[in-house]
């Protein structure tokens, strides 16, 4: 099956490279286009055999199309591809702000939504899939099989999208920020610690804690209970965090949901 990638920037380029490196796709069956020619040339040098072409040619040549552009850029690209799109194609968008019903009404293809994560760079983490009403069982098997080479694909409903995307796709940045701020505040409390040393402690401890939960089958609650013993210093830390962290997360999910709602209202295909 010929597979096209329209947009090979941060997310589209990551998806394409990861799927090629793991053998999920082979260069001779891959077509790519991007506004920046230099990114396409870099892909062609890394993976000899891929086809570089315009979006209309991709639409004419590929049965599976990944549309990896921002929601605001989608309408103009669809207009370019219109003459070549056909019912037998599967069009997968990575734009979270585009309602699938709107996309289905706009194109003859079967449509789905994919929310990848930067963790697919190392073939790990969760990728989220949302299916349109015309998607077939074969389409599901194809997409989930392909994505299982670089991730743990999970199917969600569109109404679950924003918080789930925040956890899986936005999660790496949020987690990295928490680890970084933890290290920096420790250094601020005791300047005898270097940031490099504090960051190493935080990273290694976070990695080991996740392994402990996965391999030791320990829940988050059990880890907290085992470490934050009554009257101890860690228990004090947990009590302080419990006064501030839940409110911060509430604001994160509330404000991002509101931002996405406003962006959806401005989308027109």
Structural commentary:
This protein folds into two domains: 3-157, Rossmann fold (3-Layer(aba) Sandwich); 171-266, ProC C-terminal domain-like (ProC C-terminal domain-like fold, Orthogonal Bundle). Strand 5 (90-93), helix 5 and strand 6 form a beta-alpha-beta unit. Helix 8 crosses helix 9. It has an eight-stranded mixed beta sheet with strand order 3-2-1-4-5-6-7-8, with helices on both faces. It has eleven helices and eight strands. With 269 residues, it is an alpha/beta fold. It has helices spanning 10-21, 37-46, 55-61, 71-81, 100-106, 137-147, 161-168, 171-189, 195-215, 220-227, 233-266; strands at residues 3-6, 30-33, 51-52, 64-67, 90-93, 110-115, 126-131, 152-155.
Helix and strand content put the structural class at: alpha/beta
What composes the largest sheet? 8 strands, mixed
What gross morphology would you assign?
Answer: elongated
CATH class wording of the largest domain: Alpha Beta
Order of helices and strands: EHEHEHEHEHEEHEHHHHH
**What is the total number of structural domains?**
2
What is the CATH-assigned architecture of the largest domain? 3-Layer(aba) Sandwich
Radius of gyration (CA) equals: 22 Å
Beta fraction:
5-15%
Q: pLDDT below 50 for ≥5 consecutive residues: which ranges?
A: none
User: Based on DSSP secondary structure assignment, what is the total number of beta strands?
Assistant: 8
Share in helix = 55-70%
